[in-house]
Design goal:
Order of helices and strands: EHHEE
Helix content: 25-40%
Number of helices: 2
Strand order of the largest sheet: 1-2-3
Structural class: alpha+beta
Number of strands: 3
Oligomer: single chain
């Protein structure tokens, strides 16, 4: 099966995120995921899209927000894209523990 891709676009508004979530749930249903997994994917998408609106666009409407759903034979991918403020870089945390100490 060739990959099939659906791209959803909306304005950076929290009240539009619900529509994205419903559309992604419908795509998951069409991809034959069970209802529990559809709900989990919808929740993950809503969280990611809300973060874009809140943090990348600082709740300012009028900016682009896109979700790409790509269905392949044995899996699918979701990509959430914005053009807002990027997250600040975080360094790799230094872990100070003794792996032989099972209580640690």
């Amino acid at each position: 099966m060739n990959p099939r891709r659906v791209t959803l676009s909306c304005e950076s508004r929290l009240d539009h995120v619900e529509l994205l979530g419903r559309a992604v749930r419908a795509l998951c249903t069409a991809a034959k995921l069970d209802s529990r997994h559809c709900a989990q994917v919808e929740l993950a998408l809503v969280e990611a899209a809300n973060n874009c609106v809140r943090h990348a666009y600082h709740l300012e409407a009028g900016h682009p927000l896109e979700v790409a759903f790509t269905l392949e034979a044995d899996h699918f991918t979701l990509e959430v894209t914005d053009r807002g403020t990027p997250m600040p870089p975080h360094g790799t945390p230094v872990l100070d523990f003794d792996p032989s100490d099972i209580a640690n």
